[in-house]
Amino acid sequence: MNQPNSPSPAGAPHTPSAEPATGELRKATTLREVSSAHVNDWSSATWSTETGFVAGPRVYGLHVLDRVGSGDGFAAGLIYGLLAGVSVERALAYGTAHGALVMTTPGDASMASLAEIEALIANRSAHVRR
How many angstroms separate the CA atoms of 18 and 59, rounded? Predict the structure, then answer.
């Protein structure tokens, strides 16, 4: 019998598992409310079999320089939090803050430090100190 995500024998169909190895199905998304092309409210949400629906923090009046990479920034922050073993709420906060900070810099690469992400989480202000 094939293990999930293991190669199938030649010619045999492979059916990937619908659930991660932990047995938990988790979905996460960003939420954006657009006031104008350069001002957005930014948030996130997740759902899992373990926690149910969880809403992330909301950053109001975010002054957007470049939206490219904000979703990747969100995913990176969320994954960082999950791998660090923090609560789902805290992992969402990391993702939300990192995605927001990515939008305040040009290009699609993050220039945010962990200290800046933590400061944004604590203050929840769209005004970033650099």
Answer: 33
